[in-house]
Amino acid sequence: MERVEPIRSEKKIKDLKKYLLGSNNIRNYTLIVLGLNSALRISDILELKWCNIYDFEERTFKSHVYIKEKKTGKDKKFLLNKNAIDALKKLKKELEHIKPADYIFTSREGQNKPITRSMALKIVKSCCAAVGIKAQIGCHSLRKTFGYHSWKKGVPLPVLMELYNHSNQSVTKLYLGISQDDLDEVYRLVEL
């Protein structure tokens, strides 16, 4: 598997979201926004059903989502932030009828099947290319982007390690995709 990078530019992230909204494909917009804001692997995002994120009795989005990670088998609880909920609301509004057992990111082929990982990869790569993101991009870039921007905003490494369910900090450090520009920024910041 080739190594992918996070999307480091907040402007490019905004451009990406604007592009997706402009192309009027709310499913793809929501897929990318949820990927950027949940730090989940694409395999876990594609397995999400409406009952995981929406309370049908209360008719409201849940504040937290509980899943069992497909890769690790570990339990994961994460907060649906405002950006994720806003994107999910857009998608829900666009869909005619949703049932609790429906996948959120349904394929156009067959009934109640999620899109495939290869389709998700195609969506992420093509949308990023359309807005001029030149880094090595894949679905895992969305997960890494969350960590990178969390780290840039001062979230400590042990917290990110816990968030990612990593067993050691060295794996988390790799996720952050720290570049020479990030290191140079430290030297500019700390002038003693």
Automatic annotation (TrEMBL):
Keywords: DNA recombination. It holds the Pfam family Phage_integrase. This is Tyrosine-type recombinase/integrase. InterPro entries: DNA_brk_join_enz, Integrase-like_cat_sf, Integrase_catalytic, Tyrosine_recombinase_XerCD. Residues 2-188 form the Tyr recombinase domain. The lineage of its organism: Bacteria, Bacillati, Bacillota, Clostridia, Eubacteriales. It comes from the Bacteria. It comes from Clostridium ganghwense. SUPFAM superfamilies: DNA breaking-rejoining enzymes (SSF56349).
